Amino acid sequence: MSIDDLINISFEQEEIDEIKRSLTSIKDILSSKVINLSPEERKSYGRINTKTENWIDRVFGYMEQRPEIIPFYIDKEKFITDIEARKTIMPIINELNSITEGLDDTNKLLSTDIYNTALAYYRSIKLVSKQNVSGTTSIYEDLSRQFPGRRSSTPEQ
Fold first, then answer.
1. Closest by Cα among 1, 139, 147, 149 to 130
2. Does the CA dihedral 114-116-117-118 come out positive or negative?
3. How confident is the model over 35-62, as pLDDT tens digits?
């Protein structure tokens, strides 16, 4: 039986340390700037898509052209600050999403490799325990607990 090796990577300790330092630095910079919403709060706020972003750009343009008709309750400077902050974080979000996607994809391949190898070992132990190879029955019984609903199709002797 062939086991597909979908991915084969490793990390040097200095690489791990550098990643951790970099992540700590990012967290430190962002700690006073980002907000963490609860799952319920996340549902109540939206995102700006491209169509809406274009509309907001037009709103801003009209505010620039005709500042005298901006209602007194709108703080134009706060509006500009929010727009600039969003323009700053969007490329960061996109880059982090790309990194996260790559890590997640790598994790999926690693997980598949690990599971397939473990399953191949389990199947081998199952086979040799049925052949009464010394010391394998307890290993098989322990590992078979992972699959509690499945019964062996071969009759017990």
1. 139
2. positive
3. 999 999 999 998 999 999 999 999 999 9
Q: What is the pTM of this model?
A: 0.77
Return the amino acid letter for 55.
W
Compute the average pLDDT of residues 54-75: 97
Task: Write down the residue that tokens 């960061």 correspond to.
Answer: 92
- Residue 51 one-letter amino acid: K
Place of tokens 């323009």: 87
Instruction: Work out the burial of residue 126: count CB atoms within 10 Å of its CB; fewer than 13 is exposed, 13-18 middle, 19 or more buried.
Output: middle
Q: Give me 103's structure tokens.
A: 């890590």
Burial-class residue 113 by CB neighbours within 10 Å (0-12, 13-18, 19+). Answer: middle
Tokens at 151, concatenated = 């019964």
Q: If phi over 0 gives left and psi between -120 and 50 gives alpha, with beta otherwise, what is residue 156?
A: beta
| pLDDT (mean) for 90-107 | 97
Residue 137 near residue 129 (C-beta atoms within 8 A): yes
